[in-house]
Specification:
Number of domains: 3
Radius of gyration: 24 Å
Largest sheet: 2 strands, antiparallel
Strand content: 5-15%
Structural class: mainly alpha
CATH class of the largest domain: Mainly Alpha
Distance between the termini: 49 Å
CATH topology of the largest domain: Serine Threonine Protein Phosphatase 5, Tetratricopeptide repeat
CATH architecture of the largest domain: Alpha Horseshoe
Shape: globular
Number of helices: 25
Strand order of the largest sheet: 1-3
C-alpha cells in the first residue's frame, strides 16, 4: 500500500503544477522555475504530467478506435462525455483530414517535448544541485521526450524531430520543419534512451516518494519496444510507403532490412537481463496462506498482473495519471441491491466476440485447431457441473466452457463467476447478464453491448459499497510489463532466425506457464490438428502473435500490434459481434449478433494531418493516402 501511496503523491504533484502548464515566454519566470532544486523538480513533474493518459478511454486510441471493444452509440454521443465519439468514429472508418479525430499531433505532446528541452537546457544552472541528481533528472526528461516522439511516430509515421527548442527569433523557414525519415526518428529515440539509461537508477531510490518515476529498466524496455515496432512489417519494407516522400523527393522509408529484427532481439535481451537479474522483476503470481480455490488463485494472478495496486514485480512502467479511471467503464453491475442510476458505473466497454474466440481452449491451443471443438455449436446451452463452478455457475453458452484460465480471469459473462468486488473468494458473485437482470437492466444506455465485460481491468478490491457507492481501487496502468517484454523477445528472435531456437520457446512458455498452460511444443504435439506448427518460423510467428493477443488482451496492445503486423485490415473486415443482449430467454440471448461493420483501408494504418496544419507549414507533407 505504501508503494502505491507514493504513486498517488506523485500524481498529486503532477496535477498541482498548473502554473507551469505553459512554458513561460519571459526569462524572469523561467529563472524562478529553476531558482532551486524544489522549483526545478516541479518543472520536471510538469514534463511527467505531459505524458499521455494511458487509461483514458476518450483520448487513448487503443481502446475505442480499434476492434477490441465496442459500445452503444447513445453512450458514445452522450453530452457528458464530449470526446467519447472521437475514437469511435475512427473505429467506424470515418477519419478525415479537415478535422481529424483524436488529432493528437496538435494536442499537447509537442508542448511536452519543448518542456523537456527547456528543462534539460536550464536544470544545469540550478544552484547547489547535486551532479548525480542533475544527471538523473535530465535522463528522466530524455525518456519522457523519447516516449512522446515514439507515441507520435506510431500514429503518424515519420515526424519532425524536435531535438532542441527553436528560438523565438528564428525565421519562418526554420520554424516550418519537415518530416525526418523513419530511420532517423528511430535512431534519435534510441539515442535518447541509451543516453538516459546511463544515468537512471535500476530501481527508484526511495520507494515511498519516488515509485512511478522513470528508471533504467523503463528506458531499456521502451528501447526494445521501439526497435521491435521499427522492425515490424508496417514500418520495415511496406510497399505502400514506398512513395511516402518529402516535397524535396526525400524517401521517408527505406527498403526492407531484416537485420532490424536482430537489433530488436538484442535490445529485448538487454532489457530482460536488466529487469530480471538486476532489478529483481518476475512474472506476477498471487500467493496466499488462505484456503481458496485454484480458479480464484489463478484469477487473482492474471488480473493482478495488470491491476495490482502495490506496483507488482512484473510492472516495468505504469501510468500514474488518472490511476484506476477506466474501471467505472468496465465494472459490471453485480450487486442486485445497488442503484444502477446512482452508483456511477457505466459498464459500456463490451469485448468484441472475435476477441472472446481468440482465447485458447483448456488444452492451450486455438479453438480452430482443437479437434474436440470441431463441429461444436458454440451457441448451444450447457449447465455447469460441480467441478466447473469455480468459473461458471448455472447455464450458459458452450463457448464459455472448457477455456483456458485467462479467458475466465479476463472476461465477465452471463453466469460467469466474478471474484472480488467485496465478496470473499469462497463466496463470489455470479454475473447475471440476461435482459433485465442485475448486469443488464438498461440496454441502449448503460449495459455491456456484447455480453462480455473486460473484467481483467478491474482491481480485485474495487467494490460496490452499499446502494449508491462504487469504490475503485486505483492502480498504475501498465505501459510496459515483463510478459510483454518476454513476448517481444520471442517474436524478434523468431523473426531473426531461419527456424525457431529453444530460446524462442523458453520465453513464450514462461508466459504460458504462469497462465496454467503447458509449453507450446507439448501442447501442439499432443492436442493440435497441426502438431508440427511450432517447428517452423511461420508457424511460430502465428503462435507468438496469438499469444500476444491473448496475454495482453484488453490492455491496449492489440490496437498497435495489428497495425505493426499489417493485419488490421484483415481483422477489421470481420464484423463486430456479441450476444443478443435484449433477450430474457437464454435460447435467444445466446445468438451471435452483428453489431457493426468497420471500414479500414491501407491509409488508415496512420493518422492524417489536418488541412489547416499543412496550410500553415508548406514543408510538411500529408500522410500517405490522405
Amino acid at each position: 500500500m505504501k508503494k502505491f501511496l507514493s504513486i498517488i503523491c506523485l500524481g498529486v504533484l503532477l496535477q498541482g503544477c498548473n502554473y507551469l502548464d505553459v512554458i513561460p515566454d519571459n526569462v524572469a519566470t523561467l529563472d524562478h522555475s529553476f531558482a532551486n532544486d524544489v522549483t526545478a523538480r516541479n518543472y520536471l513533474f510538469t514534463c511527467y504530467n505531459g505524458l499521455p493518459s494511458e487509461n483514458n478511454i476518450q483520448n487513448n486510441p487503443s481502446f475505442l478506435s480499434g476492434d477490441e471493444f465496442w459500445s452503444w452509440e447513445g453512450f458514445i454521443k452522450y453530452p457528458s462525455f464530449p470526446n467519447m465519439y472521437l475514437p469511435w468514429m475512427i473505429a467506424r472508418g470515418d477519419q478525415n483530414t479537415n478535422s481529424p479525430y483524436l488529432n493528437i499531433y496538435e494536442w499537447g505532446l509537442w508542448k511536452t517535448i519543448r518542456q523537456c528541452n527547456t528543462f534539460m537546457e536550464r536544470v544545469v544552472s540550478v544552484p547547489a544541485l547535486d551532479d548525480w541528481r542533475c544527471r538523473q533528472w535530465i535522463a528522466e526528461a530524455k525518456v519522457i521526450k523519447a516516449y512522446c516522439h515514439f507515441y507520435l511516430m506510431r500514429m503518424y509515421g515519420p515526424i519532425p524531430l524536435v531535438k532542441e527548442n527553436i528560438s523565438i527569433d528564428a525565421d519562418s523557414e526554420t520554424v516550418r520543419m519537415k518530416r525526418n525519415t523513419w530511420d532517423d526518428c528511430v535512431d534519435y529515440v534510441v539515442q535518447l534512451l541509451d543516453e538516459a539509461a546511463q544515468d537512471l537508477p535500476i530501481i527508484v531510490n526511495n520507494r515511498i516518494e519516488d515509485l512511478g518515476r522513470i528508471t533504467r529498466p523503463i528506458a531499456l524496455a521502451l528501447k526494445a519496444k521501439v526497435l521491435v515496432t521499427s522492425a515490424s512489417p508496417q514500418f520495415n519494407g511496406n510497399s505502400y510507403y514506398a512513395d511516402f516522400r518529402n516535397k524535396d523527393g526525400e524517401a521517408l522509408f527505406g527498403p526492407a532490412n531484416p537485420s532490424k529484427w536482430e537489433r530488436a532481439a538484442k535490445a529485448c535481451k538487454e532489457a530482460i537481463d536488466l529487469c530480471v537479474n538486476e532489478a529483481g522483476m518476475q512474472l506476477y503470481k498471487y500467493t496466499t496462506l488462505s484456503e481458496i480455490s485454484e480458479a480464484a488463485k489463478m484469477e487473482r494472478t492474471i488480473r493482478g498482473s495488470v491491476t495490482d495496486h502495490n506496483w507488482c514485480d512484473e510492472l516495468i512502467w505504469g501510468s500514474v495519471k488518472e490511476p484506476g479511471a477506466i474501471q467505472k467503464y468496465v465494472q459490471a453491475f453485480l450487486d442486485p441491491n445497488a442503484d444502477s442510476g446512482g452508483i456511477h458505473i457505466f459498464q459500456v466497454l463490451g469485448v468484441n466476440m472475435k476477441v472472446v474466440k481468440q482465447y485458447y481452449t483448456s488444452r492451450g491451443i486455438p479453438m480452430e485447431e482443437d479437434p474436440l471443438w470441431k463441429g461444436k455449436n458454440v451457441e448451444t446451452l450447457r449447465t455447469a457441473v460441480s467441478d466447473e463452478e469455480g468459473v461458471i455457475r448455472g447455464t450458459t453458452a458452450e463457448l464459455n466452457f472448457d477455456r483456458e484460465p485467462r479467458f475466465y480471469a479476463s472476461l465477465g459473462f452471463d453466469r460467469g463467476v466474478w471474484y472480488g468486488n467485496g465478496k470473499t473468494d469462497n463466496n463470489p458473485y455470479t454475473l447475471q447478464g440476461l435482459y433485465l437482470q442485475t448486469a443488464n437492466m438498461s440496454p441502449g444506455d448503460n449495459a455491456c453491448i456484447t455480453g462480455y465485460w473486460p473484467k481483467k481491468l478491474v482491481n480485485m478490491e474495487s467494490a460496490q459499497v452499499g446502494k449508491n457507492t462504487y469504490s475503485a481501487k486505483a492502480y498504475a496502468y501498465p505501459i510496459l510489463r515483463l510478459a510483454d517484454l518476454y513476448l517481444l523477445y520471442a517474436e524478434s528472435l523468431n523473426e531473426s532466425q531461419t527456424t525457431p531456437s529453444e530460446e524462442v520457446y523458453f520465453y513464450i512458455d514462461k508466459v504460458r506457464e504462469r497462465a496454467g498452460l503447458k509449453g507450446v511444443k507439448e501442447s501442439w504435439s499432443k492436442y493440435s490438428i497441426n502438431p508440427t506448427k511450432p517447428d517452423t518460423k511461420e508457424g511460430m510467428r502465428d503462435i507468438i502473435r496469438r499469444e500476444r493477443l491473448i496475454e495482453l488482451s484488453l490492455e491496449g496492445h492489440r490496437f498497435w500490434d495489428l497495425r505493426r503486423w499489417l493485419l488490421a485490415a484483415d481483422y477489421y473486415s470481420q464484423p463486430v459481434t456479441g450476444w443478443n443482449i435484449t433477450s430474457k430467454i437464454p435460447e435467444d440471448y445466446y445468438r451471435e449478433t452483428v453489431l457493426a461493420t468497420q471500414k479500414f483501408t491501407a491509409k488508415d494504418y496512420l493518422w492524417p494531418l489536418s488541412v489547416s496544419l499543412l496550410d500553415k507549414n508548406p514543408n510538411l507533407v500529408q500522410t500517405i493516402g490522405w
